[in-house]
Predict the structure.
Amino acid sequence: MWARRLAARWLLPVEGAPIERGAVLIGSDGRLDAVGPDSAVPRPHDVPAVELDNAVMLPGLINIHTHLELTGLESGAPEHDFAAWIRRLREQKSRRTPTEYVAAARRGLAACYAAGVTTVADTGDSGAVIGVLAEAGGSGVVYQEVFGPHPDQAKESLRALQARVRDLSPLTTDRARIGVSPHAPYTVSGPLFSAVAAWAKAERLPLAVHVAESPAETEFLIAGAGPFAEAWGARGIPLPTSRGRTPIEWLADHNVLSEQSLCIHAVQVGPRDLQRLAASGAAVAHCPLSNRAHGHGAAPLADFLAAGIRVGLGTDSVASVGRLDLLAEARAVGSVTSLSADQLLELCTLGGARALGMESETGSLRPGKWADCIIIRVPDGDSSPAQRVLASSPEDVLLTCVGGREVYRSL
């Protein structure tokens, strides 16, 4: 890390009004020493400076749902038969070696940086991403996945997860944390959900779970029918004992929902589910383009926000969306809601930080926070700086800094 000064035509701190001709001063510790009008931010003679016109500086984007180890598995539009698509993806994953997973994770993280993302919340089972994030000096949470649909597997699966987390923990840093992810209700038994949730709570580990994503998942839990039920039956796995419970209710039944929980997708939710999520303090990772690509429907984002639920945006994997472009996710949200450009950018930044419990460290440009910031080239025009940022693409990203350190530059 080293000190530097960055200035741009516009500065969007997120916590505060836009600043025309704004600048930041980054200390040698990688944190923001000063944020404000260019004329008011100190100009130390021994500090390198970058000044860009026709550009906007803002906090680094926060992508709260990725699968970086799947980079390279882009394969066009995903099937709407979700269960079949998952089986195909598992087959592709089974052919990858540990070395290939690491290489894929590195490419995925580089793509995030090139698209202006400075913090990721990643889920996967290879263990590759935490090492890649740590070696890059990156920021984020890596959730180690665990599977086990048969109740008889619960103790064995939990022991394997605990051993994996123990082995990976030395790779963590003050900015790269490890968490756990009981994958989904159609791949994890009730006893395993309960056991993982209890252990995560005892160890103070963040937890993420894919939930209420598809109609097939809801049919599986409520009626014990559909493609997931057929797959369990074919493998001799007993179906969940309770019926008539929604996926969110199913998580609540097994003590999975808490302030440490990140509910990924949460498309198939009703009023009672909203109440449970809000009461538990759990956060939601909203992935509109992935939901659309798989034909799952649209999550009730406006209802989440009205209920006070913490929400951030995620891209999901390249296998679902092809490209990790968080601003495209924000535009998708804007096309179906009345949120302003400023509100959409907040979802990509401070909203994501809040969802991950990182709002005191990142998500906005404020003295004392990490200097996670990006500069994006924008055209002149009558629209607001936020609107111009939202209309940009990854090709418009000029500079990405994580803790003041350049991780991407295209100047």
The first strand starts at residue 4 and ends at 11.
